[in-house]
Every structure is written in C-alpha cells, then in structure tokens.
Amino acid sequence: MEKRKNNFSSFPRKNLGKRKNVNLILEEVLENINPSKEEMESMKRVVDDFKNSIDKRIKEMKINAEVFVGGSFAKKTIIRKDVYDIDFFIRFDKKHKDISELTRNILSNYKKKEVKGSRNYFVIDKGHFFIEIVPVLKVSNPRKSENVTDLSYSHVNYIKKKIKNPKILDEIKIAKAFCHANGCYGAESYIKGFSGYAIELLVYNYGGFINFIKAFEKIQSKSVVDIEKHYKNKNEVFMDINASKLHSPVILVDPTFKGRNALAALSYETLEKFKKVCKEFLKNPSKKFFEEKKLDLEKIEIQAKKKKLDFVLLKCETDKQEGDIAGTKLLKFYNHLTSEIDKYFDVKSRGFEYKNEKTARYYFAAKRKKEIIFNGPMIKQEENVKNFKKKHKSIFYKSGKIYAREKVNFSLKEFLINWKKKNREQIRSMSVIEMEIS
Asked: Of the residues 83, 98, 159, 362, which has the fewest C-beta atoms closer than 10 A?
C-alpha cells in the first residue's frame, strides 16, 4: 500500500485554518503525553539493572534462554502514565517444557505476583513501575509458535526496523492516546479494541495519525490491510487465515506472520464507536478527544431525574483475577443485568466502568414500562396452564394460548433488590461475589 508523506494534518489547502489548528492541538497533546526526560532515564535504569540481574541468574542456572525488552518502551512508543508497565520476555529454547516454572525459579529472589493465563507470567511492583516478565519460546517459524506471546520478539524487531522516523513514532503515541481516551485501546475481552501493536502497524501503514483516522472513519466491513503484501487479493486472505480469527470487522495481516490477524480482538461495536469519534474529531478538532472520559455520575443522575427516569448505581465485585479475566466476567454480568432490566424497563442510558481491578461500576437510567405481557402455554396443556395461573393473576386467552398481564408498579431500585434476592445462586455462578445497589 502506498505510504503517504507524514504530517500531523493532511487537510486540503482550502482548510489551511483547520490544518494549523490541528497541528497546534497535536503538538500540545504530544507534549502532554510524552514521558519526561527524568522518567525515561529512571525507566532505563530500571530496565538495565533488571536485565543484567536476570541475565546473570540465567547464566548461573545454566538455562538456554535470553532476555529481551519488549512493549512500547522498546519500540519508543510509550506514553505518559501514572504507573508504567515495562515488558520483559525470557526466550527459552524449545527443549524446555514448563517455561512458566523455569521463570518462577529464575525470579526466586524477587517478590512477585503470578498471573494465570494460557501461560503464566509474573509481575514485580517497583513503585512507579510494574515489570511484567513473560516466558516465551524461541521460534524460527511463526507457525510453530505455541502462544501469541512467542511472536512478541518478531513484533518488537519489526517495529524497530521499519519505524525509525521520530515523527511517525510521535504520531503513534498520539494515536495511542486518542484510542485510550475514547475507550478503544486494548485487545482485552472487555474492551475488544486496538492493541498497541495494531496501532503501531496502522499508523505506519497510513503514514500518520490523521491519515489513519481518516481511513478508519470510512473503512468498510471486512476490509483487509496487508502492509507487506503477503497476499495477492482478499480471497487469499480469507482462505489462508484461520476462520476463527476472521470475525473482526477489519483484517490486519500481521507482517511478521501472514497467518495471523492482528485485529482479531476488534469488535464491530468498538469499531463503530471509534469511527464515530474519528468523524467528530475531523469535523471539529479539540484536545478533549485526548482526555480520558470519566463517568460524571452526579451529572448523569441529575439529568435522569429531570427526565423523570429511575437512576441506579451498582458496584459489583468478582473473585476472578484482575485484568482481562475479571473485566470480562464483570462485563458479561453487566450485559446480563441489562437484559433482565430490559424486561420491565426501557433503558435510556447505561454505563460500565472498569479500572483493571476486581470491581466495576454500572449505572442505569430507565423508565418503567406500563405493563408486561407473559407468554403462557397452549390451552390444551392443562397441567402447564394450571401452573401458569398459580404464578399470574391477570390472564387472558388468544389464539388457543394463555397469556398474563402484569403491571410494573415498582422502581428500578426495588426491582434490582428483589432480583438480587431471588438470583443469588445465579449471581455467584457468574463469578460475582458482591453486588451493591445505591
């Protein structure tokens, strides 16, 4: 695909005013999201010291493995955070079997947290930094990888080799900040958005941030982005890549492994949200698009009451591991709860907020329905009809079938309190251990 000349804004000449405005906005955004010189120097010291320590430990244990630094730090696409994640990968020779166990032994002198997954990895808290140590296998052929993390080495090397232009690296940072602020950053199941690697590839492919969001504002379903031209046409892509990885609305062929879709996690819902915000930014550029949206629950509640809607805030807790697993469980419960509320209320506004812990907040603003119609059995099913009548008072018959009519004379909060009492076992089966209603 043709690469466009990099610049912050590629608006037509007739829009010179907008172009200047966008450049000023993005320059200010970049200044805000770039880690300070002191932070980068501090990170480098942590990286160097830790790598030397692990290299020494591996040598002492006579393990055939090597350490490499990955993630956005290695690729020079890191953006400012309150707490930084630094990714380390230990590449083991394929002769080693339980590489998570080996990694645990290598880190025996460190206080660490073990994170369960398809292959367990470890996290060390360094205060202002979290070091993640991921065990991977050395693979010469990507098709022989046992885990997607085995491809991380190739991903880091590809980005470092292809993107040496500081301007493109800056535009990747801007794109990451944009995606993060608008809830589209992350391949986790509760986000279903763009991974950092996918953003790096896309900004590189389109030649900049503005070109990237312009392309995605109008992108069509099942579009294919093939940076290295691994395939002759779209049909080849759909024939070669595993069908389970083709459910995403856009297919991004991994340049390092043509059989992988680097956007497999992206959902249609997240893409539509992203397209909408791209369109809004291009129409009216503003720094607000780079500011994380926080739920202003007080404002939402006031607006709900003005519209005479019921408003309820919930805080739910899971016993599952924080991160992708906990977030996914809490999102699933939120969606289930929405479908339950929908039976008796018209939900006008709702929200889900998860901060990578074991709890999430939900809110619902809804209007109660006047009445609910329950479908019953066919009249000839006498025993079923008898049981149906026991549950419902106001019944009627139509086309050989029994129905019930029930008035909705309870508030949303009353409904949820009662639903919680009746469904304790179901709530627990969905890995939710606490459900606070306020």
From this structure: 83
